[in-house]
User: What shape does this take?
Amino acid sequence: MVGRPAHMHEWRGINRLRTKFGDELLTLLTIMLALWLFVVEPLHGHALIGSEIAGFVLALAMTSALLVLSNSPTVAVLMLVGIGLSVTAALLRFRHISVLDVFLNAGAWLLVGLVLIFVVGKAVFAPGRISYHRIMGAVLLYLAIGLTFVSLFTFMGLLIPDALAGLSVKDSLTFTSTMIYFVFGTLTGAGSGDIAPLYPIARRYGCGCNDRAALPRNFTGPAGDARNRRRS
Assistant: This one.
């Protein structure tokens, strides 16, 4: 009798891991992305740590977690492409600082953000009871939407220099953490200080940023409570 191919056994193993730890991975991914957004990048902005190594380690860990959560090699390949873009940007930065590495980093953020939205969205809104880990997944979805808008506003600032008042889009220690502050200040409604979108399409991005942020809140708010009662 011919045995099963080795790769089939590997995917069965991943399926078992997803069945056993799928919801817990949502919490783990949330912690990892929050660490990068709100700890690693701000510390890098103050020249306290080099964010490249820490960011790459977190990105590889997230790739492994997403591979298990999605059971899709395509997701892992897309995440690795995003990591490759960031590695290329870091190598270019060591040789010569230019806007090209900002473009590459923005492309990496966009790719990672979209992959997270797709994979995590499917897991969070899948059939089943809403648990603590599902709620953490909604927080992760919120963070992924924010990361996507960090990328979009960066592209906007690169292509239209006067699109944002109070923020110059260029390669610097503080740029990424400042853009994160601006986007999440807009998402939460807390405000973003002196930074404001001036160009019409940038203002539309700001409105869209708030609209997309309502999706995870709907999951954890009254709409989520009603959804949970229907499934009980």
